[in-house]
Amino acid sequence: MKRRTFAIILSSCALFTTLLVLSLNAILDKNRERFQEEIQSALGRPLTFERLGLSLWDGLGLAAKNLRVAEDARFAATPFIQTKELRMVLRWLPLFLGEIKIKTLIFDEPEIQIIRNEAGDLNISALADSENGAQGGSSGRKEKKGFAPELLISAIRIEKGKADYIDRSVKEPIEITIRNLDLELRGLSAKGTIRLKLLADLLGSQAQNMRVEGRIWPSGRGKAWTQYPMDLQIRVDPLLFPQLTRAIPLLRESASPYLDIRGPLTVKTRLRGTIERPRLSDLLLTGPFFGSTQTNLKATGELDFSQGQSWTEASIKGDFLADPASLQHLKKIPFLQELLPGPLSSDGPLSITGELQGSLADLKVHTRIKADESEVRYGEWLKKAKGVPASVELKMVWQKERTIFEPSALTLHNLKLQFSGRMEGAPERALALRLRTEKTDLTGWEKILSPLSSYDLGGKVQFDLWLQRSPQDQRHDIQGQLDFSEVEARDKKSGYGIERFSGRVAFRGKEATMEGSSLRLGSSDLSLEASVPDLSQPLMRYTLRSARLNLAELTGTPDEMKAFLGTGEIEVEEGAVTARGNLLSLEGTVQQIPYRNLRAEAAWSPKGLRFEQLWLQALGGNLQAAGALEIAPDGARRLSLEARLDSVDLKTLAAQKFPDLKEQIEGRLYLKARLRGEGKDGSSLRENLQGEGEVRIRNGSLKGLNLVQGVLSQAPGLRDNSDRRSSRQPSSSSTLLVRPGTSFDLLKAAFTLEPGRLRSQNLTLTTPDYSIYGEGWIGWDRSMNWDARLVISPELTRDLIQEWKNIRTPLDPKGRIAIPFRLEGTLPRVQPKPEFKGWAEVPQ
C-alpha cells in the first residue's frame, strides 16, 4: 500500500513539473521581447542574448545564453558585462499565482569591467542609479501590461568570472585584472544584511589567492554603494608585488624603488566601516622586503580612515619587524636619506623593530635598529667589526613639513649617544640636533676608529653638542664642547705615544678650537693648542710647546730638545692620519751631538717621513738636510737624503762619533751629499747606503801620520843618512820630514758612496810644499786602500836635490819630484808603500 501511494505521489510531481515546464516554455516563447525589455529597464542598460530558455541546474529558473549588458558611453564602448550564460532562479510560490519572480542571478564565466573615467565617475555607480530609477518607476506602476518577470533578487553568484578594474582619473591609468572569480552575494534587499563570499585570482597568481568574506548593510535608497556599512575578512596570499606595481604606477614610483620587494606578500585584515571611510583592523602584512629573497618583514596594526576628511588624516597604529634588512636599502627610504650620511655603509644583516601611531600628517615612530652582527663603516674614519654592539633607538614625529626627534639614542661599543632635535622638510632642509654623552672609556676604540688602529687607546671622553645645518648653503654648524681626560694613545709596536692628554674642544659654528690642553709624550710634558677652521674638512692646525722634549723614546738615544715649538697641520687622507709642520728648538742634542737654533720643516704619514728643510748649528758649523724616509707595508725602509755641512769642526765631530780618532784629525769640514738606500731595518739601511757627493777639508791635519816622511824615508840612499842630515843646518825639507803629522791647506774629493765604503777617483790634498793626488776607498770600519801620487813643489824639489846630492831622481816636465805610492791599512795604522822607479844612489 505504501509503495503504491509513493509511486502515485512521484508520478503526480513529475506530471506537474512537466506541465509547468511546458507552460513556462510557452510563456517565454510568446513574451521573449517583453521579458528582455523589462530586465533591460531594470538594469538601465541595453542588453542582448542569443536564447532564453528554461534551466533546472540550480533549481527551476531561466537561462540566457551569451548575454551582454552594454556599457555607458561615458566609460567605454565594450560591454559592461558579457557572460557565457546567465541563470535566473525563480521563486516557487509566485509561480502558482501565475507570476515570474527572479530571486537569484548566476553568472557563468562572465567578464565584467569596472571603470572610473577621467571625471572620477564610476560605471557601477551609474548602474546603481539606473537601477534605483527603474525600481522607482516600477513601484509607481499600478498594473502590468502583459507578462513580464519581476526582479526580487536576494542572491547573486558569479562562477569562474573575470573582472577588469580601470581607473583613468589618475595621471597614469590603473589597470587591475581579477581572474577565476567566484562571488556569492546573499540577502540582497533594501533593509536586509548582505552576506558576501569572494574567491579570486588577483594579479595573475595562477590560483585563487584572494578571499573576502563577511557582511554588508545597505543603507537604503539615495546612498551610493560606497557608503554601505560592511564587516569583511580579507586575505590575499600570495600577493605578487611586481604585478601590483605594474598595475598601479603610483606604487611603482613611490614605494617600489626603496621597498625592493622580490617575492610574494601575505595580507590579512578585517575591513569595517564603508568603502569611502574604511577601518582596517587585525592587519597583518608579511613578505620579503628590502632586497631579501625570504620573508623578513612582519607588520601588524590598524588603519582607520573613518574620522578624517582625507586619507592623510587616517589613524595609524601598528608594529613591525624587519629581520634581516640591509643599510643599503634603508638609505633609499626618503626620510632616512636625510638622516643617514653618504659615507655610511655596512656589510651584514640589520634587525629593525618599531611602532607607529598617529596619521600620515602627524605620525609617531619608535624604531630600534640593531647592527651587532653587521660590519659598519663610515668612510675611512670608522669600521665596526661584526660582534661589536651597535644599535639605534629612534623616537620621532614625522610631519608633512618637518621631522621631530624626541630623545633617542645611538649605541656603539660602550658609547651611548643621546640625541634630539628636528629636521625641516623641503624647501628649507634645515637640521637641528643636540648630541650628548656621559663620560665614555676609550679602551677598545682603536678597533673601531680606523686612523688609530695602530694604537692602544685609553682615557675618557664626553661631549655636549648642538648640530645645525643651514638651509642656505647646506653646511653644518656645531656649538658646544668636547672634553678629554687622561687620554692615552700608545703605539702597539713601540709602546710609545701620548699619555695623560686632557683638554677641551670648543665648537663655534664651522670651526673648532682647543686651548690650554696638556699631554705627556714619554717623559715630556707638552701644551697643545689646535683649531679646525672648517669642520667639513678633516684638517687641524696645531701648536705644541715644551720646555724640554725628551727624544729618548723616539730615537733610542738620550737626546732632547729644549725650548721646543712645533706648529703645523694634521689631516686625514684616504683614511690615514698625516701631519706636516715646522719645528723650532733653541738648543738640545741630536744623536748626542749638541746643537743650537734647530729649524725643520717636515711631513709625516704612516707611509714615512719627509723633511724639506732641516737646519741647525752644531759641531762649530752649520748642518742642512732634506729628504724622505719611506716605509713599505712590510716594514721595509727606503731613504733618500740630500745633506750639506758647512765649516764643521772635524775634531769635535770625531770626538762625538769616533772617539779614538779625536786626537788625530783636525780641520773644517765642508760636505755636499746625495744618499739613498733600502733596508728592512735601520742597520741594514745603513749597510746598503749609496750615493755621491763632494767633500772639502780646510786647514786640516792628520796627527801621527806624516805621509811625506813616510814616502821619502823609503827612497834609495836616504835610509842610512840620518847622521849626516843632522850635522847640517836644518832645511825646509828636513823640517817637513820631521813633523809629527800631515798638515794641509785643502783636501777635496768627489766621492761615490757604495755599500760599506766611500770611493773617490779624484782626491786631492794640497800644501805650499807638496800635493797628493789619489783614488781609492775608505770603509765604514776605517779600512782603506788608495793609489796615490806625491808631487813635491819645484822649490822643495830643488832643496831636496841640493840636500841629497848622492841621490839621482827623475823629475816631471815641471821640474817636480813625483812619487807614486799605495796607502793601505786601518786608521790610524796605515803605512804608505812608495814606488821609486828611476831613482838611484850616486857613489860619493
Query: What general form does the structure show?
Result: rod-shaped
Number of helices: 16
In quaternary terms, these chains amount to single chain
Could you give the count of β-strands?
A: 47
Gyration radius from CA atoms, angstroms:
53 Å
Ranges where pLDDT stays below 50 over 5 or more residues in a row are 130-146, 720-730
In terms of structural class, how would the helical and strand content be classed?
Answer: alpha+beta
What is the overall pLDDT average? 82
Q: Portion of residues in helices? A: 10-25%
Summarize the biggest pleated sheet. 42 strands, mixed
Rounded to the nearest angstrom, the distance between the terminal CA atoms is: 190 Å
What is the percentage of strand-forming residues?
A: over 45%
Description:
The structure is a single chain. About 15% of the residues lie in helices and about 55% in strands. The chain is α+β, with helices and mostly antiparallel strands and about 850 residues long. The strands form three sheets. It has a 42-stranded mixed sheet that branches. A three-stranded antiparallel sheet has the order 16-19-20, with no helix packed on it. Residues about 130-145 and about 720-730 have low confidence and may be disordered.
